[in-house]
Amino acid sequence: MLIMELAIILLASKIAGDISVRMGQPSVLGKLLIGIVLGPSVLGLVNDTDVLREISQIGVILLMFIAGLETDLDEFKRTGKASGIVGASGVIIPLSLGYGAGIVMGMSMLESVFLGLLLSATSVSISVQALKEMGKLKSKEGATILGAAVIDDILVIVALAFVMSMAGGDVNLGMVLLKKIVFFAVIIVLTWKLVPWVLKKFAPFKVSESIISAALIICFFFAYFAEMAGVAAIIGAYIAGIGVSVTKYKHEVFEKVETISYSIFVPVFFTSIGVTAQFSGIGDHIGMIVLLSVLAIVTKLFGCAIGAKAAGFAWRNSMGIGAAMVSRGEVALIIAAIGLEAGLLAQDMFAVIVAVVLVTTIVTPPMMKLFFKEVKENKKEAETA
After folding, report:
1. Domains of the chain, first to last
2. 84-105: per-residue pLDDT in tens?
3. pTM of this structure
């Protein structure tokens, strides 16, 4: 059954992606939407199984690894301050307004804070693909978005640990902070010293594709290490990609890993997001879904855009950066599952949050296309004037 499901996913995602591009949208939008059509909610041709989720997880890890490989490290360093401002403003504004929305809806103070944290989360795995398709991944805006996502992730995880400790969970805030500090200290040293050494040692091996295997070992190890430290696996994969990008093996690794990823794993990741959509029982909560979706989109869009503007970007570029940070993705789903288990999120509200996450994920690519397209058109007009 899995083999047939993979064949269906690959066929449908490629066709849907092509149609999306022909309609002037990023291909990822078509892949997300076709997942909904293929899934249990519509046709039921593909089911949300554990195996499919694992393949999808590999897909998002490889996608962020490729993003790291394509990162201009010098540009990344130059945008450090801008990333910090965008990441911070992209947490503060959604957290504040999300907390206010929770209070208005009659939630307790702690539940309201948790809702604000959910709205503060960001997952740029979808945005990375849209940036690649628009040729913006290596730009100043692209570097700022990726840097801001790392900072966003750190802030939200630390805040989550604080909330869980207040909720009576067995969480030591000091230990959580220490784990994050140790993680980044160790990962920087490993990226600097270990990555080049491993690739160099694997290069002479008398087996096929030893360098590619070494790069993937580094990628998966970094992703696992990040997850064990309480940081998203995609952050570890992204840092691994940066580590490989500064070696002489960058181009060889990029070309072959991209081929492996986009032939099977990445399409499965994009499509599986739609497959996991569950629409049964949410009819009674349409109003709340709409309101929270609007709140999620607006707070992240303008929160990050204000930060980008404060960092010196033009308004159109700032709105493009804000749009790229709107998708909540798997990061928000993980936080929501933690909240459900801890009693900070009711079962009905969990279903609402899943729907909101899906909405933010679907609207992100076309919004990015809109703002970055307008930026490009404005530049062309200025050049021809």
Report:
1. 59-378 (1.20.1530.20)
2. 999 999 999 999 999 999 999 9
3. 0.81
